[in-house]
Design brief:
The protein starts with 6 loop residues before the first helix and ends with a helix. The chain has 630 residues and is an alpha/beta fold. The strands form eight sheets. Strands 12-11-8-6-7-14-15-24 form an eight-stranded mixed sheet, with helices on both faces. A seven-stranded mixed sheet has the order 5-4-17-16-18-19-20, sandwiched between helices. The chain has two domains: 402 residues, Rossmann fold; 114 residues, GMP Synthetase, Chain A, domain 3. The protein is 31% helix and 24% strand. The structure holds 5'-O-[(S)-butoxy(hydroxy)phosphoryl]adenosine. The site of 5'-O-[(S)-butoxy(hydroxy)phosphoryl]adenosine has 22 residues, from helix 11, strand 20, strand 25 and strand 26.
Length: 630
């Protein structure tokens, strides 16, 4: 496979990918291990929200991530693991060890009755076993559903029940900085409401000695002793499910995005190698958690399918101090470093001495993902971390996309701070106006849609294809709608301006305002609430809640703390509102719809021009809300 590595090669690849997408992707797909070749490359209909790639092709992604590397890389490090605890030795897991461990997990799952197509929930800390768990599922064709280990038991219940998981892989506890999260206790609470779960396998990590329920709960280390290091790879159809991963929606419950085996593998491999220009023997580190799509695609499947050394870090950037990332880069001589704007902004706020203490000269490429990176953060990252000579790879994409969509190619694409820049080969963006017309010129601003399928587009929302169609394919019929706004400048460069729907991106995490509102409403004192985003120096966007109580609160501070705690319990700490303003009414239209535009303005601290408010049922509430702004 040819990875474009110059400007002209990129332009050629791009042209080719548009003129003849099927040939373009077939040629790339040839380079993988298939058990049977596809008979047709692509079938698609965006009106029906249907896409299939490599039809009839048979494969197993773990053979591509592990087995095919063994002849040449058995002793190369596949996973480099760094503990949360600076005193604990790091681990280097070779491709041979990875093979052994993944096969063992696969055999362990089989021994507990898991078969092809069964769903397995993974709720684990950032330890190598989390990657073994994912790949172990994939080995036998079980569908993994990871839930980020910061989510509450309520969130876990929703996700387990939606896809009827049969088994949960978890740990006794997780360490994050100086905090300990009792994962098993959270799982136990969840499982009171999850009838589909038959077994739980628990990794010992925090030694917190949780209760174990006889017949249901098993220790990982006991079960792994009983099984062999050899497990034949299940034959999977290219369109069989590989995993489900939940992402917040602008209304209702989280959406279980479905990704399939063939197209996903081809795309994450190609984009990993293209955008970062990954070279043999480089040390690669993506700081995401495996519980998010970034971890799936660019800690596990992308790098391992490319035979790379991928780093898994259990800790957080700010502990034991704000130099932790930089210390890890020095320690492992990291060459490619990929993190989020939130982390960059919080580390930028710390004294520069935390950076200067460490030798970062191994770095060659530095990346960013999850939310728009502002120019100031981009400049700081480029200058102080990349020392002015590492390209900043600002990758725009989504859980639904599976892999990078708009991104610079390292040392190929001319960079512009805060621009995700140009579409990768195979990606055909369209900027739409509000009436649904495509804007064909440059120097425009609108809504970002994609006109043509790429191999790793999500195939559906688990159990709800209608919602998939309505959410992504109905706004602009015949096109995939991203939910993002963007600008395209005179050079055709894209700058993502943020969500245009009711999703807020907090520290790079998607939060549906409706989800947060319904959690706030669970507090017995709360009658109704409305949530919007506001600009936050570190998190990108913060959560601002307008709350109506049944009675005027006696102690507003105490009630605020309680509401935050309620949200934290129901969704997880990441969803806690930053600001809570108590109000006596919300700006509703006569038809009962909340005019969020007004709330957004108030939250942003810009109330000079609220626009037309004459359609409000009671325009007086606006004055009160303005006066009480936090
Ligand atoms: C939303 C998707 C895909 C990995 C992590 C987030 C925003 C993501 C960028 C970027 C500007 C970005 C978008 C997108 N976003 N990357 N480089 N520049 N915005 O995945 O949780 O599915 O969120 O994150 O708004 O729609 P996600």
């Amino acid at each position: 496979m040819k990875i474009p590595s110059s400007q002209s090669e990129y332009l050629d690849a791009y042209k080719n990918s548009v003129a003849n997408p099927e040939n373009f992707w077939a040629e790339i797909a040839e380079d993988f291990t298939w058990k049977k070749k596809w008979s047709e490359v692509l079938q698609w209909d965006f009106h029906k929200a249907e896409v299939k790639w490599f039809i009839g092709g048979k494969l197993n992604i773990t053979e591509n991530c592990i087995d095919r590397h063994l002849p040449s890389r058995a002793n190369q490090t596949a996973i480099l693991w760094e503990s949360n605890d600076t005193q604990e030795p790091s681990k280097k897991i070779t491709y041979q060890e990875l093979s052994d461990q993944v096969c063992k997990v696969a055999n362990m799952l089989k021994a507990h009755g898991i078969k092809k197509g069964d769903r397995v929930c993974i709720y684990m800390p950032m330890v190598p076993e989390a990657a073994y768990a994912m790949l172990g599922c994939a080995r036998i064709g079980a569908v993994h559903s990871l839930v980020f280990a910061g989510f509450s038991s309520g969130s876990l219940v929703d996700r387990i029940n939606d896809s009827k998981c049969k088994l949960v892989l978890t740990a006794d506890g997780a360490h994050r900085g100086d905090k300990k999260i009792e994962l098993k206790t959270i799982v136990d609470a969840a499982l009171q409401h999850c009838p589909s779960v038959e077994k739980v396998v628990v990794l010992e990590r925090s030694h917190s000695k949780p209760a174990m329920k006889a017949g249901r709960d098993f220790w990982w280390h006991d079960e792994m002793k009983k099984v062999s290091t050899v497990c034949p790879a299940e034959v999977m159809d290219a369109e069989d499910l590989l995993f489900i991963l939940y992402t917040s929606g602008s209304t209702g419950k989280p959406k279980g995005m479905v990704h399939t085996c063939g197209g996903y593998m081809v795309y994450v491999n190609y984009t990993f190698r293209t955008a970062f220009q990954y070279k043999e023997k480089q040390i690669y580190w993506c700081t995401a958690d495996v519980g998010w799509i970034t971890g799936h695609s660019y800690i596990v499947y992308g790098p391992l399918s490319a035979g790379a050394t991928t780093t898994m870090f259990e800790g957080i950037p700010s502990w034991p101090d704000m130099g932790r990332f930089w210390q890890v880069i020095e320690k492992h001589k990291v060459n490619i470093f990929y993190t989020a704007p939130t982390a960059i902004r919080s580390l930028q706020a710390a004294p520069l001495s935390f950076v200067e203490k460490y030798n970062l000269s191994s770095l060659q490429v530095i990346g960013s993902v999850g939310e728009p990176i502002n120019e100031e953060a981009w400049d700081w990252y480029h200058k102080n971390i990349g020392k002015g000579n590492c390209p900043v790879i600002d990758t725009w994409w989504q859980t639904e996309n599976g892999g990078f969509m708009i991104s610079p190619i390292a040392n190929v694409t001319k960079l512009k701070p805060a621009f995700a820049s140009l579409p990768l080969p195979g990606v055909q963006p369209a900027v739409m106006d509000e009436k649904g017309n495509e804007l064909l010129e440059n120097n425009i601003e609108g809504r970002l849609a994609i006109k043509f399928p790429w191999p790793s587009i999500a195939r559906t929302i688990y159990g709800d294809h209608q919602r998939f169609k309505d959410t992504y394919f109905s706004t602009f019929p015949g096109k995939y709608f991203t939910g993002d706004g963007c600008k395209r400048d005179e050079d055709g460069y894209y700058r993502i301006t943020g969500r245009v729907d009711d999703i807020i991106i907090v520290s790079g995490h998607n939060m549906g305002t409706a989800e947060v509102e319904s959690a706030i409403d669970e507090h017995p004192a709360v009658a109704e609430s409305a949530v919007v985003g506001f600009p936050h120096d570190i998190k990108g966007q913060g959560i601002y809640a307008f709350v109506i109580c049944y009675q005027k609160p006696n102690d507003a501070e105490k009630l605020r703390a309680e509401i935050k705690e309620t949200v934290s319990k129901i969704i997880g700490p990441i969803a806690k509102p930053d600001k809570i303003q108590f109000v006596s009414g919300l700006p509703k239209t006569r038809s009962g719809k909340i005019m969020r535009r007004i709330l957004r303005k108030v939250a942003e601290g810009d109330t000079s021009n609220l626009g037309d408010i004459t359609t409000l049922l009671d325009p007086n509430v606006v004055e009160e809300i303005k006066n009480g702004a936090l």
